[in-house]
Amino acid sequence: MSDATREIEALIDLMARLPGLGPRSARRAVLHLIKKRGALMRPLADAMAGVAAAARECLNCGNIGTSDLCGICTSAKRQNGQLCVVEDVADLWAMERGQVFAGRYHVLGGTLSALDAVGPEELRIPKLRERVAREDITEVILALNATVDGQTTAHYIAEELEATGVAVTSLAQGVPVGGELDYLDDGTISAALKARKTF
Amino acid sequence: MSDATREIEALIDLMARLPGLGPRSARRAVLHLIKKRGALMRPLADAMAGVAAAARECLNCGNIGTSDLCGICTSAKRQNGQLCVVEDVADLWAMERGQVFAGRYHVLGGTLSALDAVGPEELRIPKLRERVAREDITEVILALNATVDGQTTAHYIAEELEATGVAVTSLAQGVPVGGELDYLDDGTISAALKARKTF
Ligand SMILES: [Zn+2]
Ligand SMILES: [Zn+2]
Questions:
Q1: Mean pLDDT lowest for which of B114-123, B166-175, B182-191?
Q2: Chain pair A-B, CB pairs under 8 angstroms
Q3: Where do the zinc-finger regions (C4-type) map (chains A, B) (predicted)?
C-alpha cells in the first residue's frame, strides 16, 4: 500500500471520529474533499487549524471564544442583570439563533448525574454562585434540557440560589418532555423564553 | 459578534458542505472538534492539509495517489492482464476492501449520460482504449453500478472493445438492481466478482 493510501486512510479514520459520521460517510466525505481540494479541502483545513489554535473556553461563562473572556461577556450591547444557564455551548448557540435573549450566559458544561458521578464541582455551579454574588444579577433563567438530569440540575441550582434572593425562572411552554434544546426550532425556543415561569 | 464567532461560523459553513452533514450536524461536529482540539481537531487539520497538498489523480487509471502514477499502477505485486473498470474512486476503494481482485483498475470518472451531456470524451474511455491497446490486457472486468447509466456505459464499452479481442466481463450475481457498489458489503462484492460472466 502506498504512502498516499496510508495518508488518506489516516484522514478517513480521523473524520470517522466526528459525531454523525461513520466509516462509510467518512470515506465519502474524504473523497468529496479530495475532488474539491482547492475549493473546499484546503480552506477547511486552514479554518480548522485557525479555530484549533484560537478557540478557548471563556473563563467567566464557559462559552467558546478566542480570548480569556468571550464576546458575549465583554459586549457592552448585552443587557446586565439576566443570566441564562445552559448545559452546553450548543444550547447557547441554539438560544442565540432565536435572537430573543439579550442578557448573558452561563454554560454549566453538563448536568448533575449520580450515575456518572457528576457533582456540582464538576460543573460550573460554584462559578455561577460567584457570578450571582458579584455581578448585578436580578434573574437567573434556567434553560436546561427537559431531561431527568437537566431538571434535577435545575432544581439543585434553584435551591442553591434561593438564599440570594435572585429570581430563578425556567423556560416553560414549548420545550417538549425529553426534548433537547439544540434540536428545537427557533420559534419554539422563542416561545419558551417569552412564557418563562418562576421556578 | 466577535471574531471568534465569525471564525467558528465560517468553519461550520465549510463543514456543512460535506456530504452527509447538514448545518445542524456541522455545528455539532465543530463543537466536538473544539472540545477535542488537541486530540482531534489539530491532527485532523494537519491530515487534511497534507492530503490536500499531496493528492492527485493517477494519469494512468484515475485513482487517487500522491504522484503521477498511483500505488496500484506502479505495484509489481498487482497481476498484469486484468483491468477492472469502475465509475468512481469510491468504487475502487470498495473493490479493494473486498481483497479479491489482484489486477489493476481504470476509473471512468462517471457514466455516460445523455441527460447530463456526458459523452465518452468526458470520461476516461479514450484512455481505456489506449490502455487495452498498449498494456498486455486479456480481460476487462466491468464493475459498474447496476443503474441505467452504469449499464448503458457498460454496453458502450463492451462494443468499443469488441474489435480488440479482449475478453469483456462484468460483475454478476450479488449486485442488486439499482444497487451502488460503494453500499455493498465485502462478501457481496467478492461473490459478484467470482461469478462474473462474459458481457
Ligand atoms: Zn463568556
Ligand atoms: Zn493508477
A1: B182-191
A2: 172
A3: 58-73
Residues of B in contact with A2 (CB under 8 A): 65-66, 70-71, 75
Does B34 contact A50 at a Cβ distance shorter than 8 Å?
A: no
* Interface touch B55/A34, C-beta < 8 Å: yes
Per residue, the 3-state secondary structure of chain A, as one string, reads: CCHHHHHHHHHHHHHCCCCCCCHHHHHHHHHHHHHCHHHHHHHHHHHHHHHHHHCEECCCCCCEECCCCCHHHHCCCCCCCEEEEECCHHHHHHHHHHCCCCCEEEECCCCCECCCCECHHHCCHHHHHHHHHHCCCCEEEECCCCCHHHHHHHHHHHHHHHCCCCEEEECCCCCCCCCCHHHCCHHHHHHHHHCCEEC
Q: Which of B2, B56, B75, B186 is best to mutate for the A interface (most A CBs within 10 A)?
A: B2
- Chain A: residue whose CA lies nearest to B65: A4
Assembly ipTM: 0.80
CB–CB contact B66 A27 (8 Å): no
Write the pLDDT tens digit of every residue in B55-95.
999 999 999 988 899 999 999 999 999 999 999 999 998 88
Does the pTM exceed 0.80? no
Domain boundaries, chain B: 3-54, 69-170
CATH code, A69-170? 3.40.1360.10
Name which of B29, B33, B52 is nearest A20 (Cβ-Cβ): B29
**Spelled out in words, what is the top-level CATH class assigned to the domain A3-54?**
mainly alpha
Question: What pLDDT, in 10s, does the model give residues A102-153?
Answer: 999 999 999 999 888 888 888 999 999 999 999 989 999 999 887 889 889 9
